[in-house]
Amino acid sequence: QVQLVESGGGLVQGGDSLRLSCAASGLTFSSYTMGWFRQAPGKEREFVGASSGGRTYYADSAKGRFTISRDNAKNTLYLQMNSLKSEDTAVYYCAAVWAPPANLAYYRKYTYWGQGTQVTVSS
Asked: 51-83: string of b/e by CB count within 10 Å (b at 16+)?
């Protein structure tokens, strides 16, 4: 079965960096659109960015600070987060979908999800 396992979260200070990883198994990773989402307490799940068809896409909140990459040989998706802010505090999830949705930011279009990793940024 398909498994997505995130790692790399933690507690950091404002301005620090973190790199999240998402290890995928049970799917042809290179063929899938992969997304990063986050969810803060009491808020809806929010699009961070996606990797699809050789291109990357970012939410406005992530542009210039976050970078998505993937290593298809390792079946792993990455999220490099720089200049972290307190408002970046959330549980971060990776997600996968076979056919890229017209709206990559719509989380309900993704088929598979990881369990999430907590990122906490102290100010």
From this structure: bbeeeebbbebbeeebebebeeeebbbbbebee
pLDDT tens-digit map of 87-112: 999 999 999 999 989 999 999 999 99
At 74-87, the pLDDT tens digits run 999 999 999 999 99
Residue 120 has, within 13 A of its CA and on its CB side, a CA count of 5
Torsion 87-62-26-102 (CA) sign: positive
10-13 and 117-122 strand pairing? parallel
Is 121 within 8 Å of 12 (Cβ atoms)?
A: yes
Which stretches of the chain are assigned E, i.e. beta strand? 3-7, 10-13, 18-25, 33-39, 46-52, 55-58, 66-71, 76-81, 90-97, 112-113, 117-122
